[in-house]
Amino acid sequence: MNSNRELAEAITDALAGGALPVPLQALVAGTLMCARGGAPTRLGMAKVGGYSNGSSQTHYADLLAAIIDRLPAAVAAMADDVDPVPAARLAAEVRRRDETIAALRRQVRALARSREQVRRYALALHERLRAVEAQAGEEAIG
Length: 142
Fold this sequence. Notes:
142 residues; mainly alpha; 6 helices
């Protein structure tokens, strides 16, 4: 069977029923948020879609994450020359910058550990040199 055809049939059945199921509500809400220039969020989609935020997190966490990550780019691509998702692009830029900052912080911690090892080695050498000089001074006197 064709998975697109099966998906179309499932969506048709869902639309024929009463209220939209939560996955469709989330998708429509996320699309609406993108079209308004916002970035879809889990809580925002729940508010716009009119479904429970808590249970949706439990049952549809992967879907919600995919909507947040991929939907803004899809809406922007379909919008052609109109840019309906500046907030989503900015949110993605902030995530990339946060990842860069986290990587730089890890690098700084690693360099600090390395510097501490070098400092301890230099201190040990200094103490050893003082001991050798003191011994040499005692031998010269004695």
